[in-house]
Amino acid sequence: MVKQLIKVAEDPTVGRYVAANLDLTAWQVALVERPLIRGPSQVTGPVCLGCLKSITADSSVRCERCGWPMCSDSKCSDDEWHKAECDWTVSRRKQKVEIKDFTIPHPSYQSITVIRCLYQKHNNPDVWAKLTKLESHCASRRGGSKYEADRVWIADHLRRFYKLDPEEWSIEEILRVCGIVQVNGHEVPLTDPPYVAIYDAGSMLEHSCVPNCSKTFTRDGHLLIRTGAAAVESGGHLSISYTDVLWGTAQRLAHLADTKFFVCKCPRCSDPTELGTYYSGVKCATEDCMGYALPNVHPSTNDPFDIEWTCNFCSTVIDPNRIELTLSHVGRDMAAMNRRDPNHCRMFLDHYVSAGDLHPNHYYFTEVRLNLAQLYGQLEGHPLDSLSSEQLSHKRELCLKVLKVADVLFSAECRIRGSLMFELHAIMAEDARRSQQDTNVVMEALLRSKFYLEQAENLLKYEPKELPEGQMAAQCKQNAIDLDLLLKKLHESIGSAPM
C-alpha cells in the first residue's frame, strides 16, 4: 500500500490541519483534490450553470427541464453540478426559471452555490458530512452586513423561491452553509468570470503570509498543492496564503479579518520589518530621523486595525492618520498611472523611490516593478529586440529586485517566481543575440538563459493553459528545444574552430 503524502490532523489551538505524512522535497506536488462543490461566484452576471462560463442572451439556450440559461454545449445541461438547482426548480418551484437581463450581475445567481451545498443533505450524505464539518464562523458573522444580506438575498429567497419547508430548512442552517461557502470557497480562475469551489482537505490547509506551499488548479478544476523552495519534513504543517502575498501587513490583516474572521499572527505579521524587508515601511516623520515607521501588531489583539506604527530607529510612535495620508497620496498617483505604459510606470518609480517617503522595498514599488518587468518587451509593436540596452538592463534589474523580496516573503509562490525566471531567460537570450561577435560571451549568456528557462519550466509546469502562466509554461517547452539546438550548433562551431 502506497503511503499518502499528507494527513489531516487536529490540534487544540489551530483545529484541523494538513501535515506532511512523509518527508516532502522542494516543489513536490503534495495534494491533488477534486472539489466537493463548485458553482458561480455570488456576484456574477449570467453564466452557464454547467461550464460556468459567461453567456449572453444571444449565446445561451434554456435548459429544457428547468429553464436556467446554459451555453450551447449540450453536455452542460446534463452536468452533475447543475443537477441541484435543476431538480429543485422542477420538483419544488414547479415553474421554469426565466432570466431576461444578461447585462448586469443577476441576483438569481447569488444562491446557486449554496443550493448545491444544501442539495447534498438528502442526495449525497458523504459530501454533506464533509461540508458540515467545515468552519462557518457563524458567531463572528452574525450581525454583520454580509450576514444580514445573506439572510435576505439567500436564506429568505431560497425558502420563498423554492418553497422550502421551514421545518426542514431553517434560516440558521442556510446561513451556516452561506458561512461555509464564504470561509472555505476558493476562487478558481479557469473561466471568465472565475467560479468558486470548496475542497475537503484543501479547506484545512493553514494560512500563513509566508506559506510553505502554493496552490493552483488543474484544467478540470482540481486543487493542486505544491511545496515551495524548502522541503517539508514528515509531520510539518502545510500552509498556503488566504490573502495576497504582495500586500502589506495592514492590508492583509484587514482582508483576513473581513473574509476569514481571524487576526493573523504568522511570523511575517508578527515582525514589524516583515522578515527584514521593511515591506510596509513609511519614512519616519521625526526631523532628521533616518528610520521607517513599521506596523507593530500586538500579540494578543483581536482587532485587525490595532496597529501601532513605530519608528525602527528613534522609536517614535507615528500618528496612523499621518501614515494613511502618505499612503493615500502615493496610492492615488499609482491608481491614476497608466499601467500599460512603461514610461508612466518608470516615472512613478523614479519619482517616489527617490522622494524617500516609502522604503525602497515598499509593496507599492514591488507591485509596479513586477508590472514593469513584464511590460518591457511584451507590448504589441514593441518586442524585446526593440528595447534599448538601457531598457533591457532595467528589465533585468527589476526582475532581480522583485525576486530578492520574493525569496524572503513568498518563496513558495510559483506563478510570480516562474514568470520572473522566464523574463530573465528572455533577457539573457536577447543579450546573446546582441553579442554575436564574441562566441564566449554568447555561450555564457545562452547557458544562463537555459538555467533561468529550466527554473521557469519547473515552477510553471503544473499551471493550466487557461492561465497566462500555463501558456508561458508551454512556451518554455518550445524555447527549451530551440535553445538546445542553438547551443548544439554553437558547440559544434567552437569545436571546429582553429585553436
From TrEMBL:
Coiled-coil region: none
Gene3D superfamilies for this protein: 1.10.220.160, 6.10.140.2220, SET domain
Official protein name in the record: SET domain-containing protein
SUPFAM superfamilies found in the cross-reference section: SET domain
InterPro entries for the chain: SET_dom_sf (IPR046341), SET_SmydA-8 (IPR053010)
